[in-house]
C-alpha cells in the first residue's frame, strides 16, 4: 500500500446520498480475489443516468464528492478495490457506513468527512478548479476555501505511511522472530503441564 499525504485534482461532484456498495460495484463482479480489473465496472449502474460520472471532464478525477451515508449496503471490500482501480483516491462526504469506512482505511482510500454545508460549497466549484486534500494539515482546500477535517490519529498515520495490517505487524518482525525461537520450548513445557 502506498502512503499518501496530499491528493490534488478534479473532484467529481456526484453529490448523491446513500450510494451503496451495489451501486459502486455490482454483485456480478465479486467473484475475484484480485484488486485489478474492477475499475471498468465501478459505478456502472450510475453511468448513463446523467450524473457527473458521465462527464468526460471527470473521467480521471481522483476525488469524489458525495452525499451522506456513502458506501452503505453490504460489506464488500470490492467496492473500495473498484474505486481505487478506477483511479479514485479519496471520497469527501458528510458520512460513511462503518464497514465501508473500515474497508477504505485498510486499502488506502481516504474517506474525508465534512458537514453538508462544506459539501455544498465544494460541489458548486468542482467544475472550475481542483481540490486538495492534505492529510498533514488535515484540510480540504479549493481556491480560497478551506475546511478542516478530523481523522482518527492511528488511521491518519497508517494512510500517510502506507501501512496496512500486515505492514504494521511486520514492523515487529524482529520481536516476533525472537519469540518464535523460544516458542517450541514454551509449547512443550506448557503441553506437558496440561497432559500430565
Describe the 3D structure.
The chain has 196 residues and is α/β, with parallel strands linked by helices. The protein has 7 helices and 8 strands. β7 (139-142) and β8 form a beta hairpin.
Estimate the helix proportion, in percent: 25-40%
What is the helix tally? 7
| Quaternary structure annotation | single chain
Average pLDDT for all residues: 88
**Low-confidence blocks of residues:** none
* N- and C-termini, Cα separation: 48 Å
DSSP E strands, number: 8
Structural class: alpha/beta
Hey, roughly how much beta strand do the residues contain? 15-25%
Strand order of the largest sheet: 1-6-7-8
Rg is 21 Å
SSE topology string: EEHEHEHEHEEEHHH
Major sheet, described briefly? 4 strands, antiparallel
Form type: globular
Write the layout of secondary structure elements.
Elements: E1 6-9, E2 11-13, H1 21-24, E3 63-65, H2 78-85, E4 90-93, H3 98-107, E5 110-113, H4 116-125, E6 131-134, E7 139-142, E8 145-148, H5 153-161, H6 165-170, H7 173-195
Parallel strand pairs: 2-3, 3-4, 4-5
Antiparallel strand pairs: 1-6, 6-7, 7-8
Brief rundown of the structure:
By secondary structure, the chain is α/β, with parallel strands linked by helices. It has seven helices and eight strands.
